[in-house]
Amino acid sequence: SVNGGIKHILSIEAKSFLQMGKVVDHLHSCVETILVVTASDPYLVVTDCLELLDSHRMLDIPQLKYSTDELPYHNAYLRLTNTKIPFYASTNYEKVDLPIMLDVGGNVGWFSFLSVAHGVEVYVFELCKSSVLNGWSLSSNPEDNQVHPCLKGVGDIHGIQEDMFRINLRNPGSFSFLEEAAQQSKAQTMEGGKLQLVTLNALVGGQNWLANDEGSTATVIAILKVDVEGLKLKVLLGAKKLLRSHKVRYIFMEWKKTLVSQDWDDMCSILLDSGYELYKTGMWMGPSDVVMAKYADETELAEYMGDLSAKSKVLGHQ
């Protein structure tokens, strides 16, 4: 633990934040943040989804055709509401008692809106328009502007553009920028050509979240959730400054055996060097098992996490 005894958590296979309420409720009771939303960076302008919401409805989403009793994709979507209110960022120059969540790979917005329900300000990044159409159209308090969507990818170089590939027709959120994805037999090049990538360092820099002015209350990023298709290392590389600032208290990540060994070591090295420790692991239902051992070496930590990932695959959990 670092920074005054605050526990930093890395959770594996965090598919459902069953315990998030306790985490956020605690943070909500003891922190204040200063939110300064700026549009000075053209790459980080929050997306206005009004046109998308007006022109699409749930049954128009092609992925729903694959829904079955065993794979009920239609249940994974939050249905469209009749609201005409677009998503846009609020500008707050006063202190507010809302911690922040960064949802990298937001998909239909399940984790984002669960966080909002616990009083969190959410910044969510997602590239899949079908996910945005269904999930982000629902906000418990749209007039409060607690959800700030950005239709962009997150990587290690701010402002570049990359080709995006769809790697699994049956998974609405299975998109990747990795060149390896293009080599898969079922991979499809997405329409629209190149898509924009940003970094988390640029986001927090533009929001002035890393500043600690005298007399001000430090911004608290309660949760950083990362669930992207093989791009976790790039996300972490583009967030080094943020991670080393100790502003992020909890990290939730999905970890799969398919990653190459060097990527594992590099990711673990970034996390350990930034002061984080492995705290809980779990299957698709979320983190449940406390990790008693301490891993100070990235290779040992990567091997341990790889063994867990392989075991979960044998048991039928992805």
From TrEMBL:
Xref: InterPro entries:
FkbM_mtfrase (IPR006342), SAM-dependent_MTase (IPR052514), SAM-dependent_MTases_sf (IPR029063)
Q: Where are the transmembrane segments?
A: none
Reading the lineage from the top rank, the first entry is Eukaryota
Which Pfam family, giving just one, matches this sequence? Methyltransf_21
User: Which residue range or ranges hold the Methyltransferase FkbM domain?
Assistant: 103-278
Q: What is this protein called in UniProt?
A: Methyltransferase FkbM domain-containing protein
